[in-house]
Automatic annotation (TrEMBL):
<comment type="function">
    <text>The glycine cleavage system catalyzes the degradation of glycine. The P protein binds the alpha-amino group of glycine through its pyridoxal phosphate cofactor; CO(2) is released and the remaining methylamine moiety is then transferred to the lipoamide cofactor of the H protein.</text>
</comment>
<feature type="domain" description="Glycine dehydrogenase C-terminal">
    <location>
        <begin position="785"/>
        <end position="906"/>
    </location>
</feature>
<keyword id="KW-0663">Pyridoxal phosphate</keyword>
<feature type="modified residue" description="N6-(pyridoxal phosphate)lysine">
    <location>
        <position position="708"/>
    </location>
</feature>
<feature type="domain" description="Glycine cleavage system P-protein N-terminal">
    <location>
        <begin position="477"/>
        <end position="736"/>
    </location>
</feature>
<comment type="similarity">
    <text>Belongs to the GcvP family.</text>
</comment>
<dbReference type="InterPro" id="IPR015421">
    <property type="entry name" value="PyrdxlP-dep_Trfase_major"/>
</dbReference>
<dbReference type="Pfam" id="PF21478">
    <property type="entry name" value="GcvP2_C"/>
</dbReference>
<protein>
    <recommendedName>
        <fullName>Glycine dehydrogenase (decarboxylating)</fullName>
        <ecNumber>1.4.4.2</ecNumber>
    </recommendedName>
</protein>
<dbReference type="InterPro" id="IPR049316">
    <property type="entry name" value="GDC-P_C"/>
</dbReference>
<comment type="subunit">
    <text>The glycine cleavage system is composed of four proteins: P, T, L and H.</text>
</comment>
<feature type="domain" description="Glycine cleavage system P-protein N-terminal">
    <location>
        <begin position="6"/>
        <end position="446"/>
    </location>
</feature>
<dbReference type="Pfam" id="PF02347">
    <property type="entry name" value="GDC-P"/>
</dbReference>
<dbReference type="InterPro" id="IPR049315">
    <property type="entry name" value="GDC-P_N"/>
</dbReference>
<dbReference type="InterPro" id="IPR020581">
    <property type="entry name" value="GDC_P"/>
</dbReference>
<dbReference type="InterPro" id="IPR015424">
    <property type="entry name" value="PyrdxlP-dep_Trfase"/>
</dbReference>
<dbReference type="GO" id="GO:0004375">
    <property type="term" value="F:glycine dehydrogenase (decarboxylating) activity"/>
</dbReference>
């Protein structure tokens, strides 16, 4: 019977045999087989782990591989242990209706969920348009000029807003004033983030008229408040401006269809979440946070920003704007470590707005407010003490000393989840899904009658007249043209057709691990028992989730050699930050306040340095040698200089250069001997799983990218999940959460570190994907996958090495799971650049490998284990043919300024419009290899002018006339 691993791993046994022959590895070189021989050549013997014995497998926490049917049955059993009660907790998470046309055509569509970050914009026009719709939606509703392409969640967006205010304010102070009515998880996260970078938070009850501190660089206002209260914060915003500070407002986008926008109130920055725009709660995520800023702050925005530029024909085209401000370029000078977005969820939220339009969104908001008003009238009529008269969707009722009793009664009596704001106050939040019958049940909890006649209360009765919205929003035609399901389905299809995703072909992006996201892994995320759970639901409602989380934590700890795992970080960057904050907490607990230096190799991922700065550390760069390894002499010298203040070393393993460093144990030992801790970046775990463990090679803490090694889709640039794993001595400093269902984690560990994500378990809604991946692969399958990935990378390196130099290899001439092709000699010989090769690959039907990282002028190729030999050979053929085309330019066959490489990519229109005047033929442009005739992908735009888009910054939907 064919196993799941057989389906997941692309090269068959016969194909692997041919690939190994090409590498000169015969069938009899190793008793365990030729694939093991390759791995013993590649992985240093000092860390190599032999295949586990039968007894070791029996003792493993990871059970033997399950079939797809068995894994789904187990997931059904876990899901059945969750109870989908009606959540009326609020606190930033609400029931919402996902239109089925969006669920089926976006969330469940591999054209959307298998795409990557749009770093090749010519083949990303569909998702870029969806993101510019998102930006326009956010900017319109918040009344601010520019929004980015999404944040990780609301709480982390508030933290980023705080940091933006600090760097943009001219005030010489470290004080930031925080609304007393802020969401509790946001307050907790702000405290953690502020402490690390020396910001002093001062809590102020703005709505009650408390005065601001005399000196501050910014204020944070929750609008409406966590209590549901709606009030006018414009005076507070004005006072902040007078003090030289900036105003950050966290606003509910649905409420903003009825309320005056933050921009109209004078806010500088607006942040929040788009979860209630059709994105299921999923026990906390993933959801698209948002950030928008007033004019003049665009270049201060963290994260990704989509803008409008022009292509080679002068036609409008989308691309990522102002990338020089991002962490991967600025490194230790970066102001944020965010390197991703929540693209898949931002697309869903934007399409919710496209489908409903401004009138539909307003109608939903009026319905929500009307139901909340009806409930208040009943509660007041029955004698309940309702705290606020002005509200949108959330009420609070005073029940002196009895809040837990009322919450319990609603839960067990009616299956309704209310919020105990404190011992004396119960919170009730109404949403799009709330029914009148449920309102009646809530009223009965507070002593109301079983039956009654009613009429909806007008919105104006619950919202202050002076705060009613008078500004137009979502006026662009895109928010008015897709009302029918037919129109919406076709719009989504047209956008997907403009993109290149994994469902079209290989995306060989080095360092990004674009492996298969199997349909069986994806199946459970839309089940109501996983999707419909509030992150603060009581433990009794989420027993299945907690068991799944326990199992996944244990499995991840075992395969990495660590003792404890926190799943809270909702991106790799946040996992890095959590790990470094754990190191910081450990040193502070030991009285080593002076240990603040973080050593980072020059080859490291850009997020490493940025995360270290945000953890309050000073970055010291360690050189790499000519082979791409950490320079041991420079490392020892830096350790000696900073021995007393050494906090940590951050190292990626295998290295960012795509090789297994043979001296890694010596490196980690040197750091430990000086009293430092070792952070091993888990970005390249796909090359190590089953053959070595971070904890065994000297790691104290690591983050793991579940969206890379463990099969969660990249979704066009997000969701990401970045759990942090640590040895026992650091476990107490891993992230905790004030609203977590329990304190204990797998292995009995109790975490007491600060909050790094809005929800206790981060983006828990996609954890069933990685659970299913590990469950169906089993320990042996994970090891097979690693070997297959390393084999494919070495095969590509061997086949292409005679055409393009392979920049780095290990001691035995082998690479890890990726290889770096050096195109600098090609440019010197022919004038053809790495950009030309990347764009020409589009004409061959490929997404380009990673460009100019970690070395400028190179391509970093990672085939992953999922691509079969036929697709790998197609890529090799394309690269060889492109080299021949470049040589033809050098030989004078084509002019340097008129050849198929410098004009790539070629659109269908460019081939048929007007007279063909190029030195090469139409056939050479469009069909450089015969196989393209039956399966050609046509890019929708020609090469995009990147500089034009930065000089002429436009980050909202362009008018229809622009496309005429």
């Amino acid at each position: 019977m064919v196993s799941f691993a057989d389906r997941h791993i692309g090269p068959t046994a016969d194909a692997q045999r041919r690939m190994l022959d090409a590498l000169g590895i015969g069938p009899d070189v190793d008793p365990e087989g030729p694939l093991e021989a390759l791995m013993t050549e590649a992985v240093p013997s000092s860390i190599f782990t032999a295949a586990p014995s039968e007894s070791a497998l029996a003792d493993s926490s990871i059970p033997a591989a399950a079939s797809e049917t068995e894994a789904l049955a187990e997931l059904r059993s876990l899901a059945a242990r969750n109870t989908v009660n009606r959540p009326m907790i609020g606190l930033g998470y609400y029931g919402t209706i996902t239109p089925q046309v969006i669920q089926r055509n976006v969330l469940e569509n591999p054209s959307w969920y298998t795409a990557y970050t749009p770093y090749q914009p010519e083949i990303s026009q569909g998702r870029l348009e969806a993101l510019i719709n998102f930006q326009t939606m956010v900017a319109d509703l918040t009344g601010l000029s520019t929004a980015n392409a999404s944040m990780l969640d609301e709480s982390t967006a508030v933290a980023e807003g705080m940091l933006l205010a600090r760097r943009a304010s001219k005030a010489k102070t470290d004080v930031f004033a925080v609304d007393a009515d802020a969401l509790p998880q946001t307050r907790a996260l702000l405290e953690n983030r502020a402490d690390a970078v020396g910001i002093r938070l001062v809590t102020v009850d703005f709505a009650a008229g408390e005065q601001l501190p005399a000196d501050l660089f910014g204020v944070f206002v929750q609008y409406p408040g966590a209590s549901g209260r709606v009030w006018d914060p414009s005076a507070v915003i004005d006072a902040a401006h007078l003090a030289g500070g900036l105003a950050v407002v966290a606003a509910d986008l649905l409420a903003l269809t009825l309320l005056t926008s933050p921009g109209a109130l004078g806010a500088d920055v607006a942040v929040g979440t788009t979860q209630r725009f059709g994105v299921p709660m999923g026990f906390g995520g993933p959801h698209a946070g948002y950030m928008a800023v007033r004019a003049g702050l665009e270049r201060q925005l963290p994260g990704r920003l989509v803008g409008v530029s022009v292509d080679a024909d002068g036609k409008p085209a989308y691309r990522l704007s102002l990338q020089t401000r991002e962490q991967h370029i600025r490194r230790e000078k970066a102001t944020s470590n965010i390197c991703t977005a929540q693209v898949l969820l931002a697309v869903m939220a934007s399409m919710y707005a496209v489908y409903h339009g401004p009138d539909g969104l307003t109608a939903i908001a009026r319905s929500v407010a009307g139901k909340a008003g009806l409930l208040r009238s009943w509660l007041v009529e029955d004698g309940a003490d309702v705290v606020h008269d002005a509200f949108f969707d959330t009420l609070q009722v005073r029940v002196t000393g009895r809040a837990a009793e009322y919450v319990e009664q609603a839960h067990h009596g009616y299956g309704i989840l209310l919020c105990a704001a404190d011992a004396d106050t119960v919170g009730i939040s109404v949403d799009e899904t709330t029914t009148v019958d449920e309102l009646l049940q809530v009223a009965r909890v507070f002593g109301g009658r079983a039956e009654r006649a009613f009429a909806f209360v007008g919105v104006a009765n619950a919202l202050p007249e002076g705060l009613l919205r008078r500004e137009e929003f979502l006026t662009h035609p895109v928010f008015h043209a897709h009302r029918s399901e037919t129109a919406m389905m076709r719009y989504l299809k047209s956008l997907a057709d403009r993109d290149y995703a994994l469902d079209r072909g290989m995306i060989p992006l080095g360092s990004c691990t674009m492996k298969l996201n199997a349909a069986t892994e994806m199946a459970a995320i839309t089940w109501p028992e996983f999707a419909g759970i509030h992150p603060f639901a009581p433990a009794s409602d989420v027993a299945g989730y907690l068991e799944l989380i326990d199992q996944l934590e244990a499995w991840l700890a075992e395969v990495t050699g660590y003792d404890a795992v926190s799943l809270q970080p909702n991106a790799g960057s946040q996992g890095e930050l959590a790990g470094l904050l754990a190191i910081r907490g450990y040193h502070l607990a030991n009285g080593d306040e002076q240990r603040t230096v973080c050593l980072i190799p020059s080859s490291a991922h850009g997020t490493n340095a940025a995360s270290a700065v945000l953890a309050g550390m000073k970055v010291v760069v360690v050189a790499c040698d000519e082979l791409g390894n950490v320079d041991l002499d420079d490392l020892r010298a830096k350790i000696q200089v900073h021995a007393e203040e050494l906090s940590a070393l951050m190292i990626t393993y295998p290295s960012t250069h795509g090789v297994y460093e043979h001296d890694v144990v010596e490196i980690t030992s040197a750091v430990h001997d000086a009293g430092g801790q070792v952070y091993v970046d888990g970005a390249n775990l796909n090359a190590l799983l089953g053959y070595a463990r971070f904890g065994d090679l000297g790691g104290d803490v690591s983050h793991l990218n579940l969206h890379k090694t463990f099969a969660i889709p990249h979704g066009g640039g997000g969701p990401g999940v970045g759990p942090v794993a640590a040895k026992a001595h650091l476990a107490p400093y891993l992230p905790s959460h004030p609203l977590a269902q329990r304190a204990e984690h797998a292995g009995g560990h109790v975490f007491a570190g600060g909050v790094v994500s809005g929800a206790p378990y981060g983006s828990a809604g996609v954890l069933p994907i990685s659970w299913a991946y590990v469950r169906m692969m089993g320990g042996a399958g994970l090891r097979r996958a690693t070997a297959a990935a390393v084999l494919s990378a070495n095969y590509i390196a061997a086949r292409l090495g005679e055409h393009y130099p392979v920049l780095y290899t290990g001691e035995n001439g082998r690479v890890a799971h990726e290889c770096i092709l050096d195109l600098r000699p090609l440019k010197e010989a022919t004038g053809i650049t790495v950009d030309d090769v990347a764009k020409r690959l589009i004409d061959y039907g490929f997404h380009a490998p990673t460009m100019s990282f970690p070395v400028a002028g190179t391509l970093m190729v990672e085939p992953t284990e999922s691509e079969d030999l036929g697709e790998i050979e197609r890529f090799i053929e394309a690269m060889i043919q492109i080299k021949a085309e470049a040589d033809a330019v050098a030989a004078g066959r084509w002019p340097a300024d008129d050849n198929p490489l410098v004009h790539a990519p070629h659109t269908a229109v460019s081939l048929i419009a007007g007279e063909w005047t190029h030195a090469y033929t139409r056939e050479e442009a469009a069909y450089p290899v015969h196989a393209l005739i039956t399966g050609k992908y046509w890019p929708p735009v020609r090469r995009i002018d990147q500089a034009y888009g930065d000089r002429n910054l436009v980050c909202a939907c362009p008018p229809i006339e622009a496309f005429a």
